[in-house]
Amino acid sequence: MALRLLYRRYTLPFRAPVRTAHGVWAERTGLIVRLEDGAGRVGYGEVAPIPWFGTETVEEAEAALSVLGEWVKPEQLAAVPVKLGCLRFALAGAFGELGQDERLVKDNPSPPYLAVAALLPAGRAALAQIGPKAELGFRTFKWKVGVGDIADELSLLDDVIGELPSGSKLRLDANGAWDRRQAGRWLERAAERPIEFIEQPCFAEASQGAAQCARMEDALRGLAGDFPTPIALDESLVGAHDVERWLAADWPGIFVIKPALLGDPAPVLARLAAAKADVVFSSALETAVGAQAALQLAFAWAGKPRALGFGVWPLFTDSVFDGPFGAPFIRAEDVARLNPEAVWTALN
Predict the structure, then answer these.
(1) Do 139 and 52 belong together in one domain?
(2) What is the pLDDT of residues 322-334, one digit of tens each?
(3) Which residues are catalytic?
(4) Which helix (H) or strand (E) holds 289?
(5) For residue 21, what are the domain limits?
(6) Is 308:298 a contact under the CB 8 Å cutoff?
(7) Whole-prediction pTM value?
(8) How do strand 42-47 and strand 3-20 relate by DSSP bridges?
């Protein structure tokens, strides 16, 4: 069976730049892929790399698509190298839309809606956003830290907590900004406060060398054993290999899963489910195409529910590319209503 494979590249400015420990992120670049079979059925997928996580670049994914050509067979899609995980996710999603992927079906029915964490900006700007988001109904909040001076951010922590509604949960996302000593200071402070978890306190990019990466991973394991506040892995989980490695190491904390980076997600999620892993599904700041695929996986997850890391919309200056509106809950029917074809058409 031959399939027609087309793709379009996009560069989309964010409504507001996203500040993280990796710098200021002003626009999203990626690819939308389209598969059509002989019966006229169409499936869409999205390549949404984050190179500083260790994914492929958009250029590498685009080069691989060029080599595949316009007409492909399913076995060619399955043979895309594992190192091109974001491309494999896009192709698996597009191919799955041509027919039901039975690997993702679960015995119990999906919930009608899932809670969402509100994303707060770095620094003092977070204080002005908590009240309006609380009025909308958010009760889980995620604050970007590791961006400014550590003493300034630590002094702001109680101010942020003081603005939260009673009974709320606060997540701290450091994006790997700290060394072990700095992370320890935060975990000491968090131990006596309503912090749900600290996300990726330490991280080393592959470009820093294997020895530094090993030191940072040792630091994460040590911190997880020394402090009561849970630690979540994010940047440490690029694909199936990383997930398996941390499962094999009996990681006691949380796995923040960005489906867009997982390659073929079905076997990875099956392995996490078998291990009864504590999982949070999170956005890679993708368009509605990738968001729909990722959220469908979140709704199919049968493990312990935690608020989704998808409180990012409105994200783009052109709303046609956004996923579901940034409300405290995402409904399954809103995910089903997303229209990948509208995104494809808007890129023409």
Answers:
(1) no
(2) 999 879 999 999 9
(3) 144, 258
(4) helix 288-300
(5) 3-100
(6) yes
(7) 0.94
(8) unpaired
